[in-house]
Amino acid sequence: MTPLTEQDLAEAIAMSSGPLSIQGGGTRPIGKPVTGTLLETKGLDGITLYEPGSLTLVVQSGTPVTKVEEALAAEGQRLAFEPMDHRVLLGTTGEPTMGGIAAANVSGPRRIQVGAARDFMLGVRFVDGMGNIVKNGGRVMKNVTGYDLVKLMAGSYGTLGVLSEVSFKVLPVAERQLTLTLHGQNTKEAVASISKAMGSPFEVTGAAHLGGTTHLRIEGTEASTAYRCERLVSLLSGEIVVNQDQSAQTELWRGIRNVQPLAGFDTVWRVSMTPSRAPDFLEMLQREHEIEVLMDWAGGLLWIGSKADPQPLHEKLQREIYNYGGGHVTLVKAALKDRTRLSVFQPEPRAIAALTNGLRARFDPKGILNPGLMS
Amino acid sequence: MEMPIPDEGIIARKERIVQRLQSVIPHDAVIHDPAETRAYECDALTAYRCPPLCAVLPSTTEEVAAVLRVCFEERVPVVPRGSGTSLAGGALPTADAVILGVSRLNQVIETNYDDRYIRVQTGRTNLSVTGAVEADGFFYAPDPSSQLACAIAGNIGMNSGGAHCLKYGVTTNNLMGVRMVTMEGEILDIGGTYVDAGGMDLLGVICGSEGQLGVVTEATLRILPKPEGALPVLIGYDSNEVAGECVSDIIKSGILPVAIEFMDRPCIEATEAFAKAGYPMCEALLIIEVEGSPAEIREQLDKIKAIALRHNPVEFREARDADQAARIWLGRKSAFGAMGQINDYMCLDGTIPVSELPYVLRRIGEMSKEYGLGVGNVFHAGDGNMHPLILYNANKPGDLEKCEAFGADILRLCVEVGGCLTGEHGVGIEKRDLMTAQFAEADLEAQMAVKDVFDPRWLLNPAKVFPLASSEQRRIAAE
Q1: Which bin fits B340, alpha (ψ -120 to 50), beta or left (φ > 0)?
Q2: Cβ separation of A154 and B296 shorter than 8 Å?
Q3: Does B192 contact A118 at a Cβ distance shorter than 8 Å?
Q4: Which helix (H) or strand (E) holds A119?
């Protein structure tokens, strides 16, 4: 089914009795596989409102991300949370949609400075599992009127409702970026350097580490980036290479954003944890497992690639995270049989599961919206 | 303001309930003498008052859990209270309710500069969170104007903002985790010292739920390194429209100030009479603050100046040092007090799309004449969060009612132009009955469904947020 209006979407869901597999552009097949009638949002396509002077954008959920990025670029603005494009890592095709970004709460390297997709979502319209059209939030930047269901929808992967429209806050594109690179660092040294930089007032907008190399990005005006770069160089010890090439840096950060270095791995996990605990966590894993790691978000986000049978490592990751300050582990990329047999999302403690299951039962009493996807 | 009729059965059982509460927390933490419960009869929305059945002041999360278990078993409504600074009546009790104050939960549990967070008990005041880390060069960003007194618990309940949220966001954008006790007395940890929820974003819906989903006893807050410096400029215009255009042009130019504050003529006049900040007498006044190193500040201010001058300001005043900066902020910071000198006032909190600013200010001016009540506007212009202050005389019969009707009309206007009823104060009881202006039945049903899941008996702060008529069936069914 490919409804063309919100009303059609509502009717389609109201009439459905069996499971629905909800899809934007189909570029992010994350979660347990869902067998059900395909319900696509790509028919809901269009920018409803864009006011550059108010930094606000309202789009229908099926609107391709590229269309939005072009419109924003024409006004010197952008989606500042830098949403990852999963096609490179997952080998998928199709067009990522704005609704997909919202439903999966997809962010990128700049998340550490400006926030995640959920922090930029100002409002939603969605259809719940009974076919009711619900709106929450709006298109203004400060809004505490009633409960924040916008956040609840962000990252709920369509299991509470199918998004029809989303409002976003947008921000100006920075005039220039500079990337400071430190070579020959282990993860402990990397996190220490990054932590020092993040604790300075120089507003690092990207902090990643891969294969012994640490990258720190700053953005702003010509004068400001030059100043901040100089201050950071004197703050951090060791040899630092400063990359001034704008397009080369764009490529570098796009690669980090899209987790390109791990594209060749069959199994890839996403681990969200306390940055300073990451080096010990990785050391523990590397004692027994051969893994490749991309560290983003100042050490708070680990992408882990493996070519071995995923089950032993998967279970260890989801178990051991509790011994390293807590967090969560998601099996983002794996063979279908592994996604089916393993818990893709971090299992929730009993009391939390009671709440999330309770919410699903209320928003989708028929149990038809991507059932089981988040288990 | 209509409140639910108190349950006589509960009031009759007061002695037993007090005894049960005293059996789980120290005697001095249960306040039940009518002379003392009066201290909890209202919050900063002082027009409405009602002493609670009793008040409890637990000192630990376990005590909070024990209190809630008793109240759950006794089916007694519980009204959580931070410091009682709510302007929306968020902590207003009913005669059959227990006030659960978190003021004794005021410890810093952990500060971590490597990972840039602080864990605190939620009775701690907003400003004292920054106080705990500023010697080390950090701060906690949300800065509601009541920050000297307001508690983190209330900030989380109302998802509080402040003057600097244009750059740093509001509470929800700076909250990493909570320890929360459910009405049934179960202790939950949601989120933690890492960013983003793993599964569903429960933290996101807890923040801003006005104490209706659980009692938050501990919070993990993001802290940020202090900027090197900050300076404001003051710009005066002879019309609201032009000031609005200037704001829009600055935002479009790619500069992101940390604050853009707006005051209109009635507010400037009142402020001058009171604080004598030396503001120019004009129709609209902007205070714009930028941050960075001295050179970075200079660069941004030069750009702002170029834009501002294109719109022919009647005044453009730069702060050269901290002293001059304080002078520029003086009037803005005393604006509420100044208005209070003239009259009683009611402070509204709607948000509008920035583009609608001139139209909304014009309409408010027209309505002010129709109602015969003065109004001053002081607000966060960068994000469209308005704070119209309606002046009235509390001693004049009928004036409060007229003021409320005027306020409701302004808030409906905010919704009509694409905005909302409240940007940072919360719904409480104040805007409860206006919710239907912004939300359809299905919208409210979806929100109430969340409460059904967290608090099936509807015992936590039950008479807030939702119109009484909308929540009535649920409150009755749960009894």
Answers
A1: alpha
A2: no
A3: no
A4: helix A117-120
Count how many residues are written for chain A.
375
Residue identified by tokens 């376990």 is: B62
Element (H, E) at B454: helix B441-454
Domain count, chain A: 3
For chains A and B, CB pairs below 8 A equal 260
CB-CB under 8 Å, B198 with A356:
no
Say what the pTM is: 0.97
Reduced to 3 DSSP states, what percent helix, strand and coil does chain A have, rounded to the nearest 5?
35, 25, 40
Query: Closest to A55 (Cβ–Cβ): which among B251, B296, B385?
Result: B251
Asked which of A112, A143, A172 is the last residue of a domain, the reply is A172
Torsion over CA: B32, B36, B41, B45 (sign)? negative
- For residues B338 and A360, what is the distance between their CA atoms, to the nearest angstrom? 50
Contact A227 B384 (CB under 8 A): no
ipTM of the complex: 0.97
Q: Do A201 and B418 touch (CB under 8 A)?
A: no
Torsion sign over Cα A149, A154, A159, A164 = positive
Closest Cα of chain A to B465: distance in Å? 6
Q: Do A140 and B352 touch (CB under 8 A)?
A: yes
Residue A122: helix, strand or coil by DSSP? strand
Per-residue pLDDT of chain B (479 residues; tens, 9 = 90+): 889 999 999 999 999 999 999 999 999 999 999 999 999 999 999 889 999 999 999 999 999 999 999 999 999 999 999 999 999 999 999 999 999 999 999 999 999 999 999 999 999 999 999 999 999 999 999 999 889 999 999 999 999 998 888 899 999 999 999 999 999 999 999 999 999 888 899 999 999 999 999 999 999 999 999 999 999 999 999 998 899 889 989 988 888 899 999 999 988 998 888 888 899 999 999 999 999 999 999 999 999 999 999 999 999 999 888 899 999 998 888 887 787 777 888 899 999 998 888 899 999 999 999 999 999 998 888 889 999 999 999 899 999 999 999 999 999 999 999 999 999 999 999 999 999 999 999 999 999 999 999 999 999 999 999 999 999 999 888 66
CA distance A248 to chain B (A): 23
In chain B the domains, ranked by start, together with CATH numbers, are 8-101 (3.30.43.10), 108-225 (3.30.465.10), 230-336 (3.30.70.3450), 343-416 (3.30.70.2740), 436-478 (no CATH)
Chain B residues in contact with A274 (beta carbon < 8 A): 115, 192-194
Inside any domain, residue A354: no
